[in-house]
Amino acid sequence: MLLAYGVINMKSLGMVRKIDKFGRVVLPMETRKLLNLVEPKNDDDDNISSWVEFYTDGDSIIIKKYMPACYFCNSANDMIEYNGIKICKACLEKMNNLSKI
């Protein structure tokens, strides 16, 4: 499967879920734990919640953990994306310097 940010290797988890009358699907607990997705303790606490992004490709729906900041330092400044991972330019520069050692 191909998306704008690269190739995705998908594997079936063997789980099927029904869409309820409001269009909702529950992500299985095992999947949420695997991806370290957390739900808020109460409905008003969006700061603690994990967010997900939705993509479509033909007849497929891809749900991806949303990471708006740098994978390494959590900065949201000067971001670039490589294979679906967001990296700030400062961390990219540090990684480039490591290769010179």
Protein described:
- It is elongated, with a radius of gyration of 17 Å.
- The longest helix has 10 residues.
- A two-stranded antiparallel ribbon has the order 1-2. Strands 3-4 form a two-stranded antiparallel ribbon.
- With 101 residues, it is of the alpha+beta class.
- A hairpin with a 2-residue loop joins strand 5 and strand 6.
- It is 16% helix and 24% strand.
SS-based structural class? alpha+beta
In terms of per-residue confidence, which ranges show pLDDT below 50 for 5 or more consecutive residues? 1-5
How would the global form be characterised?
elongated
Largest sheet composition: 2 strands, antiparallel
Helix tally equals: 2
Order of helices and strands: EEHEEEEH
Task: Calculate the mean pLDDT score and round it.
Answer: 82
Tell me the Rg in angstroms: 17 Å
Summarize the structure.
By secondary structure, the chain is α+β, with helices and mostly antiparallel strands.
Could you name the key traits of this structure?
101 residues, alpha+beta, two-stranded antiparallel ribbon
Any chance you could write out the topology, listing elements then pairs?
Elements: E1 2-3, E2 6-7, H1 29-34, E3 52-57, E4 60-65, E5 79-82, E6 85-88, H2 89-98
Antiparallel strand pairs: 1-2, 3-4, 5-6
